[in-house]
């Protein structure tokens, strides 16, 4: 159950990072002629770097969960070996 929560947090960090970078691109690159109401007074570079950081956090957490684990954990035998 704990690993599923970690995977959920990784996906959430990845999603928030993608949304932040997408918002940065939409707000500061493609629609520069539109007036923008700023919900949070965040510098555009800070918003971009926070989004990139969160994408990195999500990717790292997913990689550590799925790619860096032991591929074949030792199976527990139901039969006892003679001593």
Automatic annotation (TrEMBL):
Protein name, entry field: Uncharacterized protein
Organism: Bradyrhizobium macuxiense
Keywords: Membrane, Transmembrane, Transmembrane helix
Spans through the membrane: 7-28, 48-68
Domain of life, per lineage: Bacteria
């Amino acid at each position: 159950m704990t690993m599923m929560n970690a995977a959920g947090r990784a996906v959430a960090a990845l999603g928030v990072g993608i949304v932040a970078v997408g918002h940065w691109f939409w707000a500061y690159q493609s629609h520069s002629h539109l007036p923008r109401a700023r919900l949070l007074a965040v510098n555009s570079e800070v918003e971009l770097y926070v989004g990139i950081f969160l994408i990195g956090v999500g990717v790292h957490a997913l990689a550590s969960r799925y790619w860096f684990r032991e591929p074949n954990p030792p199976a527990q035998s139901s039969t006892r070996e003679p001593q």
